[in-house]
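Sat 14:20. Reprocessing the chain from the morning session after the first attempt stalled halfway. Input below, unchanged.
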Amino acid sequence: MGKNEKTSSLSVLGNRELITAIIIIAVMIALIGLIFVTGNMGSTTPTPASSTNSSTSTTPTPEPVKSSRPSVELFVMSFCPYGVQAENAMAPVIGLLGTKADIVVRYITTISGTTIDSVKSLHGPIEAKEDLRQLCIAKYYPQELWPYLTDFNKNCQSTLKNASSAAACGANVTVKLTIDSQKIETCASGSEGIALLKADEAITNNLKVTGSPTLIINGQQYSGQRTPDAFKQFICARFETPPAECSVNLSAQAAATGSGSCG
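Finished this time. Tokens:
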């Protein structure tokens, strides 16, 4: 083979390699383009959220349910410290609005039978027995219930661990208030007291109340500060025609009592 023929052959080979390389590059570019297009076919551009959807929604405060004589129910356990604090905050309200609204104390328990031994309360049988005593006082001496609660809460809360001390302390309070202790004991130890407590249990279960204290006024649950004036304002807002007593400020009579609960 002559020199020119060799040169020609090399040139042909070089051209073929160049063409092959170009083809390979073109195929690779096409494949990359195909992958890119395919990958973007399933993607969508996010739609910006409207200003309405992005704004934080708030639950409107319900309108007060009003009546001529509001129904006020304070659910407690007699030895729950937070329930005691709520009772102490409610006491001045009783002095102010006790004749204008129906304010009652209800007790949170579970009853499985017909005797005092079947009553289960969070703080034990001593609390169950005191719940019964207080219900019986409310039935037979309604005007003395809040004076009893105020005195008992101040002087007898430390007796929770000793049944005889709790009974003796409660009896001392009834004596001071000229309450017939034996009458209250007979009520609290028998079927009468159980019937009263079962009535509270039914109401508590119906309203799904589990924590002491829980305050419900005209069916609306209270969730504000536990102070006399805060309680008073919530109650007064539920009168169809608020009495003049609602203008009295009770804030100076007690400090805030915290936000804990038993349950």
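The first strand starts at residue 71 and ends at 76.
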